[in-house]
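> forwarded from #structure-qc
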């Protein structure tokens, strides 16, 4: 990838920038924020760290929207983070106008760029970004499921004592309390998780995964999760930059999959150089479908709330 821009030089944007630069996933990396000097300072710090790792990625920071010019991929992390006790939906009224401004800048300076939305509430803001972009769903999508899946794998490793390297997991639905961890698709070394854990243990993992971000927020008091989201962003960027055709969960605009149309939901997707190659529709059992529909209904309500603002 020639040029990648991250809009939002907060902790998540900085964490993602460091990994992307160190892994040399692009030639030029722009870190853009309304606080231009902050972005410049963080960019310089990230660049020096990347150089020490042997990377030739050049990192620049600033506040000028013209820095977006000719970006191949734009990652949006800008917005206010949650505070303890807040839901992701509670920050919608603040983050919506921020996203609208960023999308206007992208449409002006990098209209052909692929867009990865990370800002919360990510399902609603991904839908908004897509509706403003004029692009197909292959070019505008969100990050949530990679992070949620990583959290679930941690909790499974903790509960079972097995290496996280051997654990596979999958989370669908909205990014929040109504997410749908598909435990039927979770395994350790290809052995179904139910072989090792009781239904009560599995339910504890499901609930902790749903509350994973809130748990970190409550413990840190100031600031939400940043390192794990940064790694999740970098995984998706790597799949796109290197055209890997990886199957990763992403917040995608649905076009009839899972019985839904015109909403943004977390589903397994194939990611390659231009973005989403296809959405994978898994067969759900009756209970899973009920949970997915509940999550989808919540996203529909959230989009309606957004449209009313």
């Amino acid at each position: 990838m020639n040029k990648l821009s991250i809009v939002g030089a907060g902790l998540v944007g900085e964490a993602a920038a460091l990994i992307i630069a160190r892994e040399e996933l692009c030639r030029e990396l722009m870190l853009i924020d309304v606080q231009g000097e902050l972005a410049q300072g963080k960019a310089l710090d990230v660049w020096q760290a990347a150089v020490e790792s042997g990377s030739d990625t050049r990192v620049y920071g600033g506040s000028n929207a013209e820095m977006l010019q000719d970006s191949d991929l734009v990652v949006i992390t800008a917005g206010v983070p949650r505070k303890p006790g807040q839901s992701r939906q509670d920050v919608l009224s603040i983050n919506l106008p921020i996203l609208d401004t960023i999308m206007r800048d992208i449409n002006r300076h990098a209209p052909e760029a692929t867009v990865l939305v990370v800002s919360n509430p990510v399902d609603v803001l991904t839908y908004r970004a897509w509706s403003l972009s004029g692009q197909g769903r292959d070019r505008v999508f969100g990050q949530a499921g990679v992070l949620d899946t990583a959290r679930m794998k941690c909790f499974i490793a903790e509960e079972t004592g097995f290496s996280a390297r051997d654990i596979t997991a999958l989370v669908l639905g909205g990014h929040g309390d109504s997410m749908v961890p598909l435990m039927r698709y979770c395994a350790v070394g290809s052995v179904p998780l139910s072989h090792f854990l009781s239904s009560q243990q599995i339910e504890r993992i499901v609930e902790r995964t749903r509350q994973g971000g809130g748990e970190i927020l409550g413990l840190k008091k100031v600031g939400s999760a940043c390192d794990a989201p940064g790694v999740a962003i970098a995984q998706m960027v790597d799949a796109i930059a290197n055209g890997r055709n990886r199957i990763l969960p992403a917040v995608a605009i649905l076009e009839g999959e899972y019985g839904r149309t015109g909403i943004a939901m977390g589903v397994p997707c194939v990611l390659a150089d231009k973005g989403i190659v296809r959405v994978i529709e898994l067969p759900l059992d009756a209970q899973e479908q009920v949970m997915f529909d509940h999550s989808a209904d919540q996203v529909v309500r959230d989009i309606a709330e957004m449209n009313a603002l």
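QC bot note: The chain has nine helices and 14 strands. The mean pLDDT is 94.
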